[in-house]
User: Fold this.
Amino acid sequence: MPKRKVQRQDAVPKSEPQREAEQAAPAEVPANEAVQAAQAEVPANEAVQAAQAEVPASKEAVQAEEGAAKQPEAPAEPLDPEALLEVRHLKKYFPAQKNFFGKPKTWLRAVDDVSFKIKTGTTLGIVGESGCGKTTLGRTILRLQPATGGEVYFDGKDINKLKNAEMNALRPQMQIIFQDPYSSLSPRMPVGEIIGEAVAQHKLVPRSDLKNYVLDIMRRCGLPYHYYERYPHEFSGGQRQRICIATALALQPRFVVCDEPVSALDVSIQAQIINLLKDMQDSMHLTYIFISHDLSVVEHISDRVGVMYLGSLVEYADTDEIFRNPMHPYTEALFSAVPVPDPDAHSHRIILSGDIPSPVNAPSGCKFHTRCNRCMEICSQVAPKFKDYGNGHMVACHLYSQE
Amino acid sequence: MLFKNKKTTSSDGAQPAKTKAPIADAHYLSVRESRAIAKSNARVIRALEKRKKRTHVSESEYLCEMQDPNNIVEFDDLRTYFFTDAGVSKAVDGVTFSIPRGATVGVVGESGCGKSVTSLSLMQLVQAPQGQIVGGSIRFNMGNKAYDIAKMPISEMRKIRGKQIAMIFQEPMTSLNPVFRIGYQLDEMVLLHTPGCTKEQAKARSLQMLELVGIAAPERVYRCYPHELSGGMRQRVMIAIALSCDPRLIIADEPTTALDVTIQAQVLDLLREIKGKIDGSIMLITHDLGVIAEMADYVVVMYAGRVIESGTTAEIFHNPLHPYTVGLQKSKPVVNRKVERLYNIPGQVPNPIDMPDYCYFKDRCTRCTARCEGEYPHFIQVSPTHRVACYLYAGEDGKGGPDA
Amino acid sequence: MKEENKKDAVAETSVPAQEAPPVEAAEGPAAPAEEGAAIDPAAQEPAEGHAAQGEEKGFLADNVRSLSPMQLVLKRFFRSKLSLIGLATIVALFLFCWLGPLFSPYGEETIDYDANGRLNVTVTEIKIPLTDENGDYVYDEDGNQVTVSVWRVQKSEMLVDTLANPSAEHWFGTDKNGYDVLTRIMYGGRVSLTLSLIVVLLETVFGVILGGLAGYFGKWVDSLIMRIVDIFNCIPTLPLLLIIGSVLEGAGVDPNDRIYFMMVFLTLFGWTGIARIVRGQILSLREQEFMVSATARGLSTARKIFRHLVPNVMPQLIVSMTLGLGSVILMEASLSYLGMGVPLTKASWGGMINDVKDPTVLQNYLNLWVPPGICIVLAVLGFNFIGDGLRDAFDPKAKR
Assistant:
C-alpha cells in the first residue's frame, strides 16, 4: 500500500486533463501509457463534482434529466478508439413511491453514476450482491430499459440517442444471456425456431440456409442436432443455457452481456458453460460484460473487474490487481467471505455486520459506511471520489484519499 | 392447435428435417408405452399408500436396533422412487451412510442427484403419491430406542418431525408464513412439542432462541412479520425455529444458497457457533464444496441417486478417489488460484429413469476401463471411514468389500 | 388429435427400424448403441474445442424419453374422470343435434296433421237451475239456488296432432303446434350450440385484440381500454338486451334476422372478461426474461405479440372459451325464454321451455319442457367440466 501512495502522488499534479477522461471512463490503457498520456490533462475534481451535482435532488431534477438527451451536449472528451463500449455517468432510477397524482416521490437509484469502458475482445466482470444494481446496469447498457441519464457509446454511437428502428438494426450486435435458463426461453417454441427466428428477422443468412446455419451454431454450442425440434421444457438447466447462448450467438454479436449465466447451474455444468463462453469469445472475438455474484467465476473469466455496491462502482481494476490487492473495505470483506473448498484453509474472514441498505434511501456520504469496519467520521458526510490510485486501480474510499 | 408450430418448422426446414424426423419422434413415448407406465404406477402407488395410511400400527413393526449406538441416523440401502409419467425415477437408489452423534455430515452432489430426496425421506415428506419409499430402512436413534422411519405410519411420524428432527430450508422467503408474526410462529413450535408448556414459558423460550441466533433486538423481531425482515434475518429466524425444540438432528437443506456472500458468511458462522452450543448433529445438504469444506466433519458424495464416495472431510478434499469427486473439485474455480482452462465433466447429470446396470458415471468418466462395462461397482473400503464405488480401486477379483 | 395420432404412428413405425423394443430400449447395453446409430455422422464433424465433445457418446442423460408437450396435456386431461364425462356429453350432444334429424321422420317445422284418429273431446258443463213442480226455483237452507249440472260432450276428429303424449311415433310427444318435441330439441340444439360457438369465437377475437393491445402497450392505451371494460361491466346485460329486443321489434326488424343481432349484442357484452384475462397474462409475460430476450434480439412487435405472447396465453384462452360456451348457452336460453331469441317457428331450447308459461303444460306435459331443460344442463355442465379439465391439464404446476 505505501507503494501505491507514491504512485498516486506522482500522478496527481501532472495528469489533470486525462484524469478527467479516466474518471469518466476508466481506461483500459496499460499503466505506463496512462501515465505518459496523463501529461496533457485538465482538473479532474471539477468534473467529478460536476457529475455529482448532476445527481438530481428532487423529482423535477430527474424529469429535467430525462429530457436532457435533447439538449445540446457539452463537448465530450474523445472516445477511446480501442474501446468497443464506453459508459459515461450512466444512471437508472426507478420511481419507488408515487404521490397521489402518480408523480414519483422517491427514487430507487439502481444504477447511480457508473462509468467504464471495455476494450474489444476483453471481458469486464461486474460483481456485487443482490440489489446492487448489476442486473439493471446490464439491461440499461443494452437499452432494454431507457436510461435516466448518462451515455452509452457502442462503437462510437450513443445508443440512447438512436431512433427505435436504428436501435433494432443495432440489436443483433449487442446480446444478452440471462441467469434463469428456465424463464428466458419461450416455452411454446421448438429450439430450432427459437434460435433461428431473430436470424431470419434480421436476414443474416438467406432463408434457404437458415436451418443449416442454426444447426451449425447448435453444434458449436454443444447441442446435438436432434434437439432442433424439441421444446425447452425437455431440457436440463445446462442444456437450456446452451440454447440461450446459441440463441444469442446466432446473431453474430460483437458484444454480449452475460447476466449471471452460470449462477443457476450445477458446478460441473458451470464449468462447461464457462468454457463454452470462453471458446466462443476466442473464435468469434466477442467482448463480454460478465455479471455475477460468484467471485471465483468472475476472477476466472474476466480481464478487468468492477465491484458494485448500491448502484455505484466502488472499485475497478485489472483482475489480478484487484484480487491480489483489494483496496476498498467492501471488496476486502466480499473476497474474504467466499468459502474455500479446502478444509485446512482457515482464512481470516471479515464478517460484515447487518444487511445491505435499501437503494431507495441509501446512506449519506459513502454508501458503505453503515457496514464498514474501518469507517471514519468523514465517511458518513462526504461521498468519496472514484479515483485512480495507480495501475488503473480505481477506488472510491476516503481511506486512501486522506493519506 | 397449440403446437402446430412443430409442423411448420419441419415443413419449412425442407429436406434435412424429413430424414431426421423419426429420430426426434423416437424421443417421445408412444401412447401405448405411456399407458403401460401409468397403469403400473397406479398399481404400485395404491399398494404403498394403503400401507402408509394404516392406523394402529403396533410399535414392534417399526422398532429396530441401531448398528452403532453412537449414530443418530443410519440410512441403510434406502430406496425412494418417483413414479412419474415417463417411468420410475429412482431418485434415491440404495443409499447407505450414517450420521454420528454431534457431527456435521455434508451431503454434496448436483441437482437431481437425490440429496434432497434423501433428507425428505428422513422426514417422510417426499411428495406423495408419486414419491414413495419403496425399500431399505432409516434407523433413527431416539435415545433409549430406535425407530425405522421408513416403516413408520404418518401419525407417529408427526411426533418426530420438528421435535426430534428439524429442518432449515433453502428459501427463507417462502418457508415462513407471511400472515403470522415471527413470535407466533416460534411459540407455536414450542407449544406444539412441549406438553404442559404455558404461553409465557413459550415466549421466554422463543426470545432465548432469537438471542441464540444472534438477533440483536429479539423483542422487536418477535413482533415483526416475516416481510419486515431481510433474507439473512429470516434465515436466522428459521434456524431459531429449528433449534427451539432441542432436536437431535438438524437438516439444513442448502441453507445459504439463496443468500448473498457476505450474509452467507454470517449464517455459516452462526451455524458453526451453534453447533458447539447444542447437543445435536447436522445434516448439511449443499452443492457448494466451499461450504462443505468449512462446515462438515464427514462428506457424502452422491450421484444419480447413489452414494459414490464418502469419508471424512480431509479424506474427500485431500484424497478424492472417485473420478466424479475429483472432477467436481477441479471444475470449480477458486479465488486466487488461477487456471488457464477449467476442467469440465462432459455431459449432463442423468435423470435416473431406466438406468442400465453399470456405473452411472461411466459415460462422463475420463478414466473408465473395460471393467466399467460390468455391473454397478460395489463399495470399496479404502480406510475405516473412506469408501468409494469405483472399479479403479477394486482388487483383482473386480469386487471390493461388501457394503459397509 | 389428428396430428397426435400421426405422430404416434411415426414413432411406432420407427421403432422396429431401430430394432429396439420401446420400453426395454433404455435398459441393457442396447441403449447406447441405439443412441450412437441415431446420430448422423455427417452432422457430427469434429467440434472445435471441448464444446461439443459430449454428444459423440450416448449419454445417460439423453437416455430418458419423455412425453411430448401435447401428450402431457392430453394425459393430464384424460386423467380426470370429470373432464372425460364432460367431453363424452358434449360429443354426444353434437352427434344428437347434427346426426339426429337424419333419422327423424319429422322436420323442424313439420306439423303432424295425422292425428291417428285421435278425437278432440270438449266437455262443457251446463248448469240448469232446479225447479219444483210450480216452476219456482229451489233454494237450500242457506238460500242458495240449487242447480243440476248437465255435461255436454263434443267429439270431433283432430286435424293436428297437438299435445300428444309420448308414443312410438313421437318419443317425447308433440307440442301445442303439433311439432315433434324430439326433433325440435335436435334443431334447437343446433341453434344453441352454433350460436354459442360463434359468439364465443367473436368474443375471443375481440377480447384478444383489445386485451393484447392494453397489455402490450400499457400506459394510456391500457388505461383507456380498461376503463371501457369497466363501463361495459357496469351495464346490466339482461335488461338492456330486453330493451334492445323491444326496440328491434318496434323498428320492424325481420324476426328471422333477430338472431344475428343477438349474436352481436352478446359479443359486445361478453368480450370484457376475455380482454381482462389476456391483458393480465400479457402484463406478467411481458416481464419474463424470454420477452426481454426477444427485445434484445430486435424481434418485430408483431412477432413478439403473435409468436411469443399469444401462444403463451392460449391455454388460459382455451379454458375461458370453453367455460364461456356454457354461459352463452344459458344466456341464449334465457333470451329465447323471454321471447327475444329466435322466432317462433324456429326451435331453440330456451324457446321450448317457454311453454311452461301455461300452467297446464307445467303440470301435465312434462315431456314438453323437461327434455330441453336437461339438454341445457348437460351442455353447460359438459363445457364446464371440459374447461376445468383443460385448466388443470395446461397448468404446468399441477402435480398430479
